């Protein structure tokens, strides 16, 4: 599809859908959920591959993308007959065979497609970050509230791991003591670009580099860790300070490739430090939660607990803290939080989506938590690009 067709198709987003089948897609307890995928880039195809691992739960029946080569790539993932293929997402939403929709498109398109999906009566798995701006987040919450029988799950998949549930439990039970510092990084050493087969497709494929479409490193990476802190502590930051720049790749991008954000959580007495760079991969994913009795250090699939010396003096061993039946210490004085590494978070997240569609219960990563994180990302970017201290408004807490 050429540039003109892309602009024409995306311009249709604001015009509403062409739907005739607007009844709620009903999924019984024994049903396989029939999925339509809107957006067949790296993330969309990645989720499709995970869905294909659970044929008893999910069946992909339709795909949509404005780029023809992406549709061809996605068709290769079909193990059965070819998926029904669309270049206009509204046609997919008009397909009565689709029960639920995975939306994995550029961030600036999330809101319009999410609105149309809900108005089409479909269940929705919307990739993070939930919306491009605050107004969209608040409006999407209102719409989802008006459609309580439809499941809306937001794709902050990493915190769906059993490891992260265990850490949330440790926090809630006070095992870490008084927590005052959160240190997070998600670093890479590379330009973060996708190959472009035609120069005219630069902004469509590398949309993450351009402010018109993207929230940059805050939305694409650091939103996961911000989301977990919001969820684990049932809180949100009050103050946002940030700095950054295009310090590594002088290639015409607009979103920063080097960022550092500091958030203040006054109710908990915590400071959150969130940083990312495209110029060094040594730390990679780093997530530390520091309390007076110990520190949790997390990767996406494994974690360690490091007790403070005073805790060991008072209690000797820390049985019960991590849930381990036998405490084993590494050379740095830490013990594993879980005995084994976990699976990819997407697998756990999709399992939850399946169960919540069938039960009608609220997902753990839902419209409310998704909105709170989207608001945080927007405020952090406002602080970052405007070089100002930004504050949370009370109206954001009324969602």
Domains (count):
2
Helix/strand structural class: alpha/beta
Helix tally equals 12
CATH superfamily of the largest domain: Dihydrodipicolinate Reductase, domain 2
Strand order of the largest sheet: 14-13-12-11-7-10-9-8-15
Q: What is the name of the CATH topology of the largest domain? A: Dihydrodipicolinate Reductase, domain 2
Q: Segments where pLDDT lies below 50 for 5+ residues?
A: 1-22
- The pLDDT mean sits at 91
Q: What percent of residues adopt helix (DSSP H or I)?
A: 25-40%
Instruction: Tell me the distance between the termini.
Output: 39 Å
Going by CATH, the architecture of the largest domain would be 2-Layer Sandwich
Q: How many beta-strand elements?
A: 15
The major sheet is characterized as: 9 strands, mixed
What is the N-to-C succession of helices and strands?
HEHEHEHEHEHEHEHHEEEEEEHEHHE
Q: Provide the β-strand percentage band.
A: 15-25%
- What is the highest CATH level, the class of the largest domain? Alpha Beta
Radius of gyration: 22 Å
InterPro entries: Gfo/Idh/MocA-like_OxRdtase_N (IPR000683), Gfo/Idh/MocA_oxidrdct_glycsds (IPR050463), GFO_IDH_MocA-like_dom (IPR055170), NAD(P)-bd_dom_sf (IPR036291)
GO molecular function, one term: nucleotide binding
Domain GFO/IDH/MocA-like oxidoreductase: 166-296
Domain Gfo/Idh/MocA-like oxidoreductase N-terminal: 33-156
């Amino acid at each position: 599809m050429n540039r003109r067709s892309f602009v024409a198709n995306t311009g249709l987003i604001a015009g509403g859908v062409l739907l005739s089948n607007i009844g709620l897609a009903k999924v019984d307890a024994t049903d396989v959920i029939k999925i339509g995928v809107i957006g067949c880039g790296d993330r969309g195809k990645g989720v499709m591959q995970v869905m294909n691992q659970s044929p008893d739960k999910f069946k992909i029946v339709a795909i949509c993308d404005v780029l023809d080569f992406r549709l061809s790539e996605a068709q290769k993932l079909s193990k059965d007959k070819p998926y029904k293929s669309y270049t206009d997402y509204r046609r997919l939403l008009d397909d009565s065979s689709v029960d639920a929709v995975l939306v994995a498109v550029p961030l600036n398109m999330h809101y319009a497609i999410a609105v149309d999906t809900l108005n089409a009566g479909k269940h929705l798995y919307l990739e993070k970050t939930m919306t491009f701006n605050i107004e969209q987040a608040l409006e999407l919450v209102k719409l989802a509230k008006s459609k309580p029988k439809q499941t809306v799950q937001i794709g902050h998949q990493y915190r769906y791991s059993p490891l992260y549930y265990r850490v949330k439990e440790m926090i809630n039970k006070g095992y870490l003591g008084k927590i005052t510092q959160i240190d997070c990084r998600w670093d890479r050493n590379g330009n973060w670009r996708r190959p472009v087969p035609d120069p005219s497709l630069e902004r469509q494929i590398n949309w993450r580099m351009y402010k018109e479409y993207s929230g940059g490193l805050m939305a694409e990476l650091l939103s996961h860790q911000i989301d977990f802190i919001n969820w684990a502590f049932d809180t949100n930051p009050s103050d946002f300070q940030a700095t950054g720049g295009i310090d590594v790749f002088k290639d015409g991008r607009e979103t920063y490739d080097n960022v550092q954000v500091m958030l203040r959580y006054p109710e908990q007495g915590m400071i959150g430090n969130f940083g990312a760079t495209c110029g060094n991969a040594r730390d990679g994913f780093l997530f530390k939660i520091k309390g007076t009795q110990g520190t949790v250090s997390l990767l996406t699939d494994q974690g360690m607990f490091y007790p403070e010396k005073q805790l060991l003096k008072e209690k000797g061993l820390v049985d019960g803290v991590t849930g381990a039946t036998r405490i084993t210490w590494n050379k740095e004085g830490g013990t594993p939080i879980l005995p084994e590494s976990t699976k990819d978070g997407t697998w756990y997240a999709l399992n939850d989506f399946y169960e919540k569609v069938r039960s009608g219960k609220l997902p753990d990563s839902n419209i409310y938590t998704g909105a709170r994180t989207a608001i945080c990302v927007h405020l952090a970017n406002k602080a970052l690009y405007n070089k100002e201290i930004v504050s949370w408004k009370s109206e954001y807490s009324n969602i």
